[in-house]
Amino acid sequence: MHYAFYFCVTKNCTGFLMKSLLHISLFLAYACAWAQPTIKIPKFAHDFGTIDEGTQASFTFDVQNIGTQPLIISNVQPSCGCTTPEWTKNPIPPGGIGKIMATFDSQGRLGAFNKTVSVISNDAENTKTLTIKGFVKKKNENSLPSPEDIKLSPVIYLERSFYNFGKIVLGQKIHQKMKITNKGLSNLKFHGIQAGCYCVNYNIAKQEIAPGQTVDLELIYLPENVGEQLDIVTLSTNDVVTKKPVITLQANVVQNFNNNVLMNEGTTTNPFE
């Protein structure tokens, strides 16, 4: 630096300074362009196959940040009102993984469906589009599986089917993890859940469970009313033996507590914060 100053005061060096400033500007521009978040989604589409009408079919997509700055998902826009997205709200650090869950409401929507959600982030050059598809069939309560179907069917096993969360505050979201096991002879396909309210959502580690395998299922429960609540959640799978596995959720919902103690069980971190 001292040499450059001496060189400039002893010689006519306007051109030298201009070239130096240009090189510095180009270097800074390159560094800024390189230091950006970069979104990567390994799987862009999911096929639910055939599901019963009324199923809330959900799938969770992984979102990776392979850039050098935090990735922020600012919005996830579905193509219709029948699809509800939920996504990681906190910045995803370089090398980190976030989640986007898309839930399709199949009630009253018989036939094939193909829905998209657009992912908008601070990686402006890489707007992503995710796709969920499948076929909704009318429930046939009287159909009976064949003996061969029963023999080869997956069989779902729940470690518990009843959860009482005690007293909770209105607006408090409960995250209850549980384990489900496939005790059958073929892969158990988890299509989604059905509930009598819009107060239950879910997240599952794997949508397809091999024979003998156990995975975590998380129910996300947000009661809508004050008072004693009893909500029945039906799991939709391809198990023809246990046709309607159900989980019962109970809670006493109050406006507020006189103290700061929240009495609930199984509370876990929200993966979509």
Number of strands: 17
- Which range does the strand content fall in? over 45%
Annotated CATH architecture of the largest domain: Sandwich
Give me the side-by-side strand order of the main sheet. Answer: 10-17-16-12-14
Q: Looking at the structure, what is the overall shape?
A: globular
Name of the level-1 CATH class of the largest domain: Mainly Beta
CA-atom Rg in angstroms = 26 Å
Tally the helices: what do you get?
Answer: 3
The CATH superfamily of the largest domain is known as Immunoglobulins
Description:
By secondary structure, this protein is mainly β. Helix content is 13%, strand content 45%. It is built from three helices and 17 strands. It has helices spanning 2-10, 14-34, 147-152; strands at 39-40, 45-52, 56-65, 73-78, 83-87, 97-105, 111-121, 128-137, 156-158, 162-169, 174-182, 188-195, 200-204, 208-209, 214-221, 227-237, 246-254. Strands 10-17-16-12-14 form a five-stranded mixed beta sheet, with no helix packed on it. Strands 1-3-6-5 form a four-stranded antiparallel beta sheet, with no helix packed on it. A four-stranded mixed beta sheet has the order 2-8-7-4, with no helix packed on it. The longest helix has 21 residues, at 14-34. The two termini are 49 Å apart. The model is unreliable at 1-7, 27-32 and 259-271 (pLDDT under 50).
What is this entry, summarized?
By secondary structure, the chain is mainly beta.
Highlighted features:
273 residues, mainly beta, Immunoglobulin-like, five-stranded mixed β-sheet, globular, disordered N terminus, disordered C terminus
